Amino acid sequence: MNLLRTGKVKEVYEVDNDTLEFVFTDNISVFDKIIPSNVPGKGETLCRTAAFWFQVCRKAGIKTHFTELIPPNRMRVKRVEVIEDTNRINTSTVNYLIPLEFISRHYVAGSLFDRVRSGEITASDLGFEKDHEVKYGEKLPTPYYETTTKLEKVDRLLTRKEALELSGLTEKELDGVFELVAKIDDVIASEVGERMLIHVDGKKEFAMDSQRNIMLIDTFGTSDEDRWWDEDAYAAGECVELSKEAVRQYYRETGYFDKLMAARKNGQPEPDIPALPNEWIRKVQDLYIEMFERLTGESFR
């Protein structure tokens, strides 16, 4: 097989003209930086979790690119074209990756709360009353949807107009993707609610197939792409992070995040991200295995 691309956490190989194979590594990344530490078993947990969700979505009538799981850490998928020059994409292009990431948020958390505190996003923007004081962890009145770039080095938030221009989607098609995101999130919430988990937020990616039908692609619903809280802890007033967010918080607490954001804001060279301490590697390894089992209801070994 030919290696086509190496991403932050997975490698993409060409099987034939119609099929790709994803190999999930034990790499871990945050803030668009690859941490110089491997987390044993992480790739397998992500691969098997993503395969689980693809099969759940298939049963729900949602079209996906997933074709086959190859244990422990590989999957095969239908191939679509990745068009780096978005000027080549238009409303008649077929069989291509939509160059956007679709983010859905159901609770106030992470970067959303950062933007609320900075005044970038208001209570009204989130569906609250104008004078409402937005608090970390509270459930949003309605889901909050956003789009970011997919093929740029650092993800960039987009306006609706920018998303349409980059993606080649019509207004109706863009609305159709968001409707599909909502349907997928309903499927996820129903599934994980049985295992005492709260789906806080997450991102998804899509493509147009050869008939220009929307198709769910890449990976989703894992501890990398989505944020999860423990339902019992949340009922007691605590937001226990059960995803890669725990690692992001570690780098916030060490001060690395602030240094990185300052460098990006000022156009300065970005500081290298430090390795995780050994005790954190073990902690993250345990977290990913635990979450695989809680999300899927399967045993890791």
TrEMBL record:
GO CC field: cytoplasm
Pfam families hit by this protein: SAICAR_synt (PF01259)
CDD domains to which the protein is assigned, alphabetical: SAICAR_synt_Sc
Keywords from the UniProt entry: ATP-binding, Ligase, Nucleotide-binding, Purine biosynthesis
Residue ranges occupied by any SAICAR synthetase/ADE2 N-terminal domain in the UniProt entry: 4-253
MF-aspect GO terms: ATP binding; phosphoribosylaminoimidazolesuccinocarboxamide synthase activity
EC annotation from Swiss-Prot or TrEMBL: 6.3.2.6
Taxonomy, superkingdom: Archaea
InterPro entries named among the record's database cross-references: SAICAR_synt/ADE2_N (IPR028923)
Pathway assigned to this chain's UniProt record: Purine metabolism; IMP biosynthesis via de novo pathway; 5-amino-1-(5-phospho-D-ribosyl)imidazole-4-carboxamide from 5-amino-1-(5-phospho-D-ribosyl)imidazole-4-carboxylate: step 1/2
GO annotation terms (biological process): 'de novo' IMP biosynthetic process
Reactions it catalyzes: 5-amino-1-(5-phospho-D-ribosyl)imidazole-4-carboxylate + L-aspartate + ATP = (2S)-2-[5-amino-1-(5-phospho-beta-D-ribosyl)imidazole-4-carboxamido]succinate + ADP + phosphate + 2 H(+)
HAMAP family the record matches: SAICAR_synth
Sequence similarity: Belongs to the SAICAR synthetase family.
Entry protein name: Phosphoribosylaminoimidazole-succinocarboxamide synthase
Originating organism: Candidatus Methanomassiliicoccus intestinalis
